[in-house]
Design goal:
This protein is an alpha/beta fold and 464 residues long. The protein folds into four domains: 3-112, no CATH class; 143-324, Rossmann fold (3-Layer(aba) Sandwich); 330-384, no CATH class; 393-460, Arc Repressor Mutant, subunit A. The chain is 51% helix and 8% strand. It contains 22 helices and seven strands. The chain has a five-stranded parallel β-sheet with strand order 2-3-4-1-5, with helices on both faces. Helix 2 crosses helix 4. The longest helix is centred in the first third of the chain and has 19 residues, at 50-68. It is globular, with a radius of gyration of 27 Å.
């Protein structure tokens, strides 16, 4: 019997008896178990632990038992469904008539078996990773920030610095700035510095030539490095001359040049110092030289990646408009829940805000799993700080960053056990704030959210 026919039939029987639809995680387990996969094997193709899959699987077998009026489990459910289908000629006709439905969307099944019900999904819902596409309903606006950025790139020679921890919407904001620039008929070039080869980052001259070449390609112009690169003057002067005497004069409208993941340069101190000094010089040059006024720079970097690196590395570009990515407030969380088709009260939005502190990625991840896994908010709150929860990989990334940082670990231990704000050293405060782990008010620190308190309590404090 085709697994998709079996799944559709199972969903119908469950709904008729319980009024409840199978969700997409139920469907994933159903398909996998139909093929005799173990829970451990299932973990290889999804983001869940076998513990969580067993829990959801147990609920699935109970639902199927209700639908079939017979007790079934992972080993027996297939035979039970096949016996049921054999007693229904329509099921055999359906098996021959329809194609598999891998995304659990409605198919022609209803034409052959009208009482079959589709398993509902939100068609647009995607796993929340990477930037949110322009036009997506799952992007939450920050009107004041966006207006400031749009206004800045409309002014000659402006520079914007967007910073924040990972997964806080920096690249999503950048995408909207670039989209707005294109709507104004500006030229745009966006470079992701994570794509630069390590060998080039180790050599200032190679890196700046790569930089010039990538911008040239982005503008769809011929590459003319040899005409403007002179070892006598050095890399920075050659790079400046290339822009000033070749690239910028070619433009009849402003160029918005975006540099994303600027932190990729931080570990290479010589390259970072030269490159950031160059960018600052260009910003200052625009105040005196009209050719540079057509260049508008947008720099984006994460603050939590290289906490062990020297703190001064970004100081040479502390100019222009600084944008610190904000958290979602309770109203924005409620709005995002509604866009996930959840009928939430403001009280439920407050509960999630308390758990994750309004962290954009953590909020979206929670809402995604509530919808896709049919979780209640109470279940989410219970699972969140555990290793079986879907925040575990995020928290493991943080623990990896803390390896070897004894002073920061000790500071976090103090914060975990303290009911009141704590006074930390300047270095501890600066680094933990850059990592997005604390909030600071009047030089007193508290943990950013309840998730961090519970997880660090389990993983940093000694067990007795």
């Amino acid at each position: 019997m085709d697994v998709e026919v079996a799944l559709t039939l199972a969903n119908t029987l469950v709904f008729q008896k319980t009024g409840q639809d199978l969700n997409t995680l139920h469907a994933f387990i159903f398909r996998s178990a139909w093929l005799n996969q173990t829970y451990e094997e299932m973990t290889q193709t999804c983001r869940y632990s076998d513990t969580h899959l067993k829990k959801v699987g147990s609920a699935l077998w109970e639902l199927l038992s209700s639908g079939l009026d017979a007790e079934v489990n992972k080993k027996t459910f297939r035979a039970a469904i096949e016996r049921y289908a054999q007693s229904r000629p329509e099921a055999l006709d359906l098996q021959d008539a329809i194609a598999p439905i891998p995304m659990l969307r409605r198919t022609d099944a209803s034409a052959h078996f009208p009482e079959l019900l589709p398993i509902p999904v939100i068609e647009e819902l995607q796993f929340p990773e990477g930037p949110v596409e322009v036009g997506s309903p799952f992007y939450i606006d920050f009107p004041n920030i966006e207006f400031c950025c749009y206004y800045a790139i409309s002014k000659p020679g402006r520079l914007i610095r967007i910073k924040g921890t990972r997964h806080t919407g920096k690249t999503s904001l950048l995408a909207r700035i670039l989209n707005h620039a294109r709507e104004q008929n500006y030229k745009t070039v966006a470079l992701n510095l994570q794509l630069v080869d390590r060998k080039m980052l180790q050599d200032v001259d190679q890196f700046l030539q790569w930089f010039c070449a990538r911008v040239t390609r982005g503008l769809q112009l011929p590459l003319k490095l040899e005409d403007h690169w002179d070892g006598v003057f050095g890399s920075k002067i050659s790079c400046k001359d290339y822009f000033e005497n070749y690239l910028l004069p070619q433009l009849d409208q402003p160029l918005v040049l975006a540099l994303d993941e600027l932190e990729a340069v931080f570990p290479y101190s010589e390259t970072a110092d030269h490159f950031f000094a160059l960018l600052r010089a260009w910003y200052e040059e625009a105040k005196m030289n009209s050719i540079w006024q057509n260049l508008r720079l947008v720099l984006v970097h994460s603050t939590d990646v290289y906490i062990a690196e020297k703190m001064h590395q970004s100081s040479s570009i502390n100019v222009g408009l600084p944008i610190q990515m904000p958290e979602f407030n309770v109203g924005q969380i409620e709005t995002l829940a509604q866009r996930h088709e959840l009928d939430w009260t403001i009280a439920q939005a407050k509960q999630l805000a308390q758990l994750v502190g309004g962290h954009p990625y953590l909020v979206r991840l929670a809402l995604y799993h509530i919808v896709q896994d049919n979780l209640s908010l109470d279940e989410l709150l219970r699972l969140a700080p555990t290793e079986a929860g879907f925040y575990n990989s995020h928290m493991q990334e943080i623990l990896a960053l803390l390896e070897g940082q004894t002073d920061l670990v000790n500071a976090l231990k103090t914060l975990v056990v303290s009911a009141d704000p704590v006074s930390l050293t300047l270095t501890e405060t600066t680094k933990l704030k850059r990592m997005g782990l604390i909030k600071v008010n009047d030089n007193q620190a508290t943990l950013r959210c309840e998730l961090y308190r519970q997880y660090f309590s389990d993983h940093l404090l000694p067990k007795f």
